[in-house]
Amino acid sequence: MKVIRTTNHQEMSKIAANIILDRIKSSSHITLGLATGGTPIQTYAYLAEDYLENQTSYQHVVTFNLDEYIGLPKDDPNSYHYYMHQHLFSKVNIPRDQTFIPNGLTEDLAAECETYEQKIQQYNGIDLQLLGLGKNGHIGFNEPGTPFDQHTHIVSLTRSTIQANARFFGTVEEVPKQAITMGIGSIMESKEILLLVSGKEKNQALNKLLHGRIDEQFPASILNNHENVTIIADEDAI
Ligand code: PGA
Predict the structure, then answer these.
(1) Which atom number of ligand 1 is nearest to the Cα of residue 39?
(2) How far is CA 233 from CA 14, 165, 175, 178, 215, in A?
(3) Can you give the pLDDT at residue 160?
(4) 67-69 and 178-181: which strand pairing?
(5) CA 129 to ligand 1 center in whole angstroms
(6) What is the pTM of this model?
(7) CA-proximal residue: ligand 1, atom 8 (nearest)
(8) In this structure, is the dihedral angle defined by the CA atoms of residues 30, 33, 39 and 44, taken in order, positive or negative?
(9) Which stretches within the chain are classed as H helix?
(10) Which residues are catalytic?
(11) For ligand 1, is residue 152 a contact (CB within 6 Å)?
């Protein structure tokens, strides 16, 4: 794994945005895997800024988000549909029918998982996957103990993740308890992975990822087996 150390969150985000823009500009078709959460917000802001200044086109870009909560309507401000619209999709010229996010409101969740995975395959897999890192080592919503070969599936969120995400909801009770997530198998099939890590609270997790052993109890550890991973971490995290 290649590690880029930055002085702060802004620099981490700028470097990430530049890598994403480079891949977008240098290909005629590209499929991006996208992440939500606090970590990539500034990266998306830089992409939006670039679009205003340079009109970098997203007409040839297809996106698949890692995950979505089960039970939240798309227009709920805490849904990842809302997040993506707010931070990126409304800011660039990406055709809306080229943006995919799991549907957490469907009656048939098992079918939704299968269809989502098939759609990723239809687009020849993910070229560049953006990831954040959970304090407990989760990637997407793949919590500790998730089998490394699993594809898109339903998960019950751990107490640690629910507590971490309560900051967006106001109270712990309001955080949905389940989500649909791309699996670790899906993530590992990406051709390139960009992992962003920021802040003191991620320091222990990053240390474990870089120096610990590969273990399903620490999902991100599997990234050590991927041949094209770049970690961009700010000074507080590393
Ligand atoms: P965060 O979440 O970016 O909000 O810290 C990262 C994650 O849980 O994957």
Answers:
(1) 3
(2) 12, 21, 27, 29, 22
(3) 87
(4) antiparallel
(5) 15
(6) 0.96
(7) 134
(8) positive
(9) 9-25, 41-54, 80-84, 109-122, 159-169, 184-188, 203-211
(10) 67, 136, 138, 143
(11) no
CB 202 within 8 A of CB 155: no
Query: Could you identify the residue written with the tokens 């205003």?
Result: 52
Q: Give Cα 114 to chain centroid, integer Å.
A: 19
- From 34, 69, 133, give the residue whose CB has the most ligand 1 atoms within 8 Å, as the site to mutate: 133
- Our CA angle for 76, 174, 160, nearest 5°, is 115
> Is ligand 1 within 6 A of the CB of residue 137?
no
pLDDT digits (tens, 9 = 90+) for 58-109: 999 999 999 999 999 999 999 999 999 999 999 999 999 999 999 999 999 9
Best residue among 12, 34, 36, 39 to mutate for probing ligand 1, ranked by most atoms within 8 Å of CB: 39
Atom of ligand 1 nearest to the CA of 35: 9
**What's the DSSP call for residue 215?**
B
Please report, in angstroms and rounded to a whole number, the separation of the first and last CA atoms in the chain: 14
| DSSP string over 129-140 | EEE---TTS-BT
